[in-house]
Amino acid sequence: MFSTIFPRNTPLIVIEIEGVPLEVPEGTTVAAAIFGYAKQSDCRTSFVSGEKRSGYCFMGVCHECLVEIDGKPNQQACVITVREGMKVRKQHIREKQ
User: Judging by beta carbons within 10 Å of its beta carbon (0-12, 13-18, 19+), is residue 32 exposed, middle or buried?
Assistant: First the structure.
């Protein structure tokens, strides 16, 4: 579904997605790293139902791609660029019952 558009000589950096190290081209968005390079199909669960959710608009409007980055929740994966050593986790926040 996703393919890279970076030139072959683009430097690679290492990030972690769900604790697994992954090399991605510098300049990649977090969403592209999750869906394109890590081959994940979801990035969070619904706040209300717990249903798996994934990116939708990829331009920062829908907020479906929220993830936890370096321990900080509610980060939009589609508009944040990866940086060396970044730790990305799927977001699993549930509504208080």
Answer: buried
Give dist(CA 20, CA 9) in Å, integer.
Answer: 24
Residue 87: closest CA among 18, 24, 28, 38: 18
CB under 8 A, 24+ apart: contacts of 12-16: 13/82, 13/83, 13/84, 14/84, 14/85, 15/82, 15/83, 15/84, 15/85, 15/86, 15/87, 15/88, 16/85, 16/86, 16/87, 16/88
User: pLDDT, tens digit, for every residue of 6-20?
Assistant: 778 889 999 999 999
In tens, the pLDDT along 34-90 reads 999 999 999 998 888 888 988 889 999 999 999 999 999 999 999 999 999 999 999
pTM: 0.86
Q: How many alpha carbons fall within 13 Å on the CB side of residue 6?
A: 17
